Amino acid sequence: MAAKKGPHIVVKNMTLVYGSNVVQRDVNFTVNRGDVFIIMGGSGCGKSTTMRGLTGLKPPLTGEILYNGVNFYGSSDAQNRIRRSFGVMFQSGALWSSMTLAENVALPLEQYTDLNPGQVRKIVSLKLSLVGLSGFEDYYPSQISGGMRKRVGVARAMAMDPEVLFFDEPSAGLDPVSARLLDDLILQLRDSLKTTMVVVTHDLASIFSIGSNSVFLDSETKTAIAHGDPKKLLVKSNDPKVINFLTRGQGRKAAGA
Ligand SMILES: Nc1ncnc2c1ncn2[C@@H]1O[C@H](COP(=O)(O)OP(=O)(O)OP(=O)(O)O)[C@@H](O)[C@H]1O
């Protein structure tokens, strides 16, 4: 578990492309240990692609991504080792509908560890209790709410005690109260487990309530134009695009910042 402060993920001059289409160019940012780090920006600016770069699904054309100083794409050995140090929660929760919640959370443990079934069962119960779902082990995804399914996705992403947890649009499809509960869970897990959290979102309520650090990706210039605590950016940024985004187009005064 990561306990020390300091840089956890360092992105250096990262350029991401699909064929001849440049999504983001020369992006630089640092995610510190224990950050709830927000990847933000307007539609299509490349947030999901950046997360794919950070998680090994999209090798950058150029640049480096360092985890604890080790180049993620430097060798397949490094990549495999680093991949084991993080968990990913996809937008829908990505649960298998034919499996119980316990079976879903057990999957990574069965795939990547030699734990016996009794040990797996214990860890699964612990992870489900961490996300407030004790006693739901034998339910199927269709028998629980959307917010609960996302929590199961978090439990599964945490099965291997990751140092970093990635969230792709965690509040998508949730009502505001469920979205808020999920935000609270993210903060609670960060505080209790010291896990570094990286969150792709354009939900302003989430950005301000959980974000301690961020990068703002701009779709016009195709690069990062702001970096830091979103609450501070709201007050201090001089970039009209950043202010426009953070105030939903209202401007700083109207937004009360
Ligand atoms: N698999 C792909 N192949 C080709 N182009 C893609 C692919 N995935 C995304 N793109 C393009 O890359 C750009 C960035 O997409 P991406 O999904 O990363 O943006 P985003 O900021 O996450 O968007 P949104 O907020 O709408 O989810 C878009 O122009 C998109 O059309």
From TrEMBL:
<dbReference type="GO" id="GO:0005524">
    <property type="term" value="F:ATP binding"/>
</dbReference>
<keyword id="KW-0813">Transport</keyword>
<dbReference type="Pfam" id="PF00005">
    <property type="entry name" value="ABC_tran"/>
</dbReference>
<protein>
    <submittedName>
        <fullName>Polyamine ABC transporter ATP-binding protein</fullName>
    </submittedName>
</protein>
<dbReference type="InterPro" id="IPR027417">
    <property type="entry name" value="P-loop_NTPase"/>
</dbReference>
<keyword id="KW-0067">ATP-binding</keyword>
<dbReference type="InterPro" id="IPR017871">
    <property type="entry name" value="ABC_transporter-like_CS"/>
</dbReference>
<dbReference type="InterPro" id="IPR003439">
    <property type="entry name" value="ABC_transporter-like_ATP-bd"/>
</dbReference>
<feature type="domain" description="ABC transporter">
    <location>
        <begin position="9"/>
        <end position="246"/>
    </location>
</feature>
<keyword id="KW-0547">Nucleotide-binding</keyword>
<dbReference type="InterPro" id="IPR003593">
    <property type="entry name" value="AAA+_ATPase"/>
</dbReference>
<dbReference type="GO" id="GO:0016887">
    <property type="term" value="F:ATP hydrolysis activity"/>
</dbReference>
